[in-house]
Amino acid sequence: MSSELVGIIGVVIMLILIFMRVWVGVAMIVVGFLGFAYLEGWNQAFIISGTEPYSQIAFYVISCIPLFILMGIVVSTTGIAGDLYNTANKWIGNMPGGMAIATMVATGGFAAVCGSSDATAAAMGKVAFPEMRKLGYDSKLAAGCIAAGGSIGILIPPSLGFILYGLLTEQSIGKLFMAGFIPGILEVVIYSITILILCKINPKLGPPGPRANFKAKVSSLKNTWGMISLFVLVLGGIYMGVFTPTEAGAVGAFGAIAISLVGRRMTSKNFRESMVETAKITAMIILLISGAFVFLRFLAVSGLPGMLSDFVAGLTLSKYVLLTCIIVFYLILGCFWDIFACILLTLPFIFPVVQALGLDPIWFGVIMVRCMEVGLITPPFGLNIFILSGVIKVPVGTIYRGVLPFVLADFFHIALLVAVPALSLWLPSTM
Known about the structure:
The chain is mainly alpha-helical.
């Protein structure tokens, strides 16, 4: 067999293992090891399986992953999301659908510090859904806006999706963070406009909430100092070049703990829970990264990525037609797998194609992450849907119907990001 055919067979076997519910990282390690052994010999395979995971994990940049995870989990477990929601609600809750818009704004702010979509959806579900239902909000709209808003967590920096993308493609993580900032804010705006339109068409979906006086609005801002400080500290430090993204993770984690202590929100129980949860998520991601790099070495010796990029480069189709195919591919893939698995499984094949097409890698990283956000709220999987259903005890079908308008808004947002690359590239260019 040719080495390229071996690579194709390896990919098929890996997908079969994954659909048999073998852990993605384990499936990649097993197939990568056996495929490398077939092509290069057992001695080389044992060397690669022993040295590759260590060399990819035991270096400075990777340490930002557990640090950003810890920062997000501390913010989530200490209840800071509730303060953001209450403040946003006082300012815009009296509009048609105002409480849902306030939820979206608070979700975007929380996502900017948390960096995790499922944690954002779970935290805001506990806080916002009961309040919206008390005001007579339609359960589909209330649940749909929380599920859709939760997906923002992997686009607004700091984002674990961008960290993994940067590690695998050797792109600047700081520039990726900045590239996701304006698209993330724009996503919040588009979602809010979607809610406003829905409630203008049918006011019963989201009746206006009570109006707060100006003094109450200003007074509520004092509760957001922690989140705003953390956000400015982390992103401002990266943008101004004060510290690297890895150092920003350490500063952010320390800042989240310090703010929680000052606000008397940190207890020994939630500190212990935060550390345990951080260890679990970090272990999962590390296993994925280890498996991905062993699998990448197998693909490299098989020559399959090069063959694929040469094939695409030889096509007479427009690069925008091919980009559309890639976007549709990620929209479909996101329905079945979480973002980490999607990034690690597909980049070995997709990124050489992106380079062959001459597309900007930073811009493409934003497009790819944005497409996989949509998968978090679309059938048949929709991770945010299932997490939110368990938190607020609403049937999955009800939440799916609630997110449909937001999925249409997602398509518009993706089209806008593709049509106007400057939305993603302007801020990194000023660093």
